[in-house]
Amino acid sequence: MKKILVPTDFSKEAENALKVAAQIAKNHNSEIYLLHMLEIPMQDIDTISTQADVPEVMFFMKMAHQKFEEIMDSDYLKGITVHEIVKPDGSFNGISDICKEHGISMITMGSHGASGIKEMFVGSNAEKAVRNSDVPVLVIKNNHDNFSIDDIVFASDFKNDNKETYRQATEFATAFGAQIHLLMVNTASNFTTTQKANDRINDFIKDYSFKNFSINIYNDESVEKGVLNFSKHIDADLIGISTHGRQGIAHFFNGSISEDLVNHANRPVITFKI
Predict the structure, then answer these.
(1) For residue 179, how many other CB atoms are within 10 A of its CB?
(2) Which of 5, 17, 178, 223 could cross-link with 173 by S-S, CB 3.0 to 4.6 Å?
């Protein structure tokens, strides 16, 4: 977590994400890359690529720099190295390219919650960026004066294609000194006996040295409800889920999990790409 990318539209929700990123940065000696992507008509972007002077573009870039200056004066950013990035690029490839260019290890983003990941900040293109992100994406819904992580719910069907995401989750948990609660949700339409579920989970984690975990099989009406209810039951600090890139959050757990999980979870969610 040496380099954290925080996309912002200068909203309150985006600031909540920045405050969390700042706390992580102070605890882990990280740098923050604060990104604002301008929503500019494609013809203007084409013009920019020829390095022409477009008054409207220059105006919005100047406004963005002024807002950055205000943010930089915030007490919660003192002592942190913050890099300012303003991009006149509305395409979702912009975030992915920036991650590669700067060696970003995590993205932290704000979300309304009710509208969820489809209304991620910096426009709808950010949703595409999150779906295609090769680095973990931390979704923050609320203000956190003291952001700490002791208990992480890692919800999965514990099939082999999720193993890479579990590796990422164990690295994240180790950095925070957190316990991972491995969770498999049983539903009436997709039922697995406790013995078989335990065997599958133990086989899934056998190649990993991470020891600070618990195994949990939870019955509920749907996988979404099971993840949310179990997380509430143990008062988890974070929910970890897997994404399948372009298919997004709507296509893991054999397609039974939808973006409603992110929408309805009041607690932070972190996504790991398979």
Answers:
(1) 17
(2) 178
